[in-house]
Design brief:
mainly alpha
Length: 163
């Protein structure tokens, strides 16, 4: 297959549409299909395989098919690597979140009064309104507001110092 530049261009123009359609049907992505066909022609130009003229169409389609299979394998490998990376990131974020929650709990236990902790627990953990929290604890809603405000200020101040 020693083509002149003009013969090679003619082969490209004649064969490209068939090769592209086949590649697209396999990889289902226009850019990947173009890349596969392009790669086949680059390899042909570089290697100049010995193929009879009457077999060239079959050779090109087989080479395109093989290139598409390579693309699909690469894509699958990339997806697997991305999935593993996502799992690693999720695990890392989960660990960091757990550490932050433990640190927050330590700050709450160490720096807040029992009443402050009860107010926060009812309001945030039990999702009670100020009024519901006040009724359960036998205090006013404005007292609940003061406990929450004061507690959050202590937590923020302590966490800033800890950082």
């Amino acid at each position: 297959m020693n083509y002149s530049k003009q013969e090679f261009e003619r082969l490209f123009k004649d064969s490209y549409p068939h090769m592209y359609r086949m590649a697209f049907s396999m990889v289902e992505n226009a850019d990947d299909a173009k890349d596969a066909v392009h790669q086949v022609f680059v390899q042909i130009w570089k290697r100049k395989p010995q193929v009879a003229d009457d077999s060239i169409r079959g050779y090109l389609l087989a080479a395109t098919r093989n290139q598409c299979l390579h693309t699909l394998r690469s894509r699958q490998l990339q997806r697997q690597m991305e999935d593993e990376l996502r799992l690693d990131i999720a695990a890392s974020e989960s660990e960091e979140r757990e550490e932050l929650l433990q640190q927050l709990q330590q700050v709450i236990d160490k720096n807040l009064t029992e009443q402050d902790r009860r107010v926060l627990s009812l309001h945030y953990d039990e999702e009670m309104t100020y009024e519901e929290t006040a009724t359960v604890l036998g205090i006013s809603a404005s007292a609940v507001n003061k406990h929450i405000t004061r507690s959050l200020e202590k937590i923020r101040k302590t966490l800033k110092i800890a950082k």
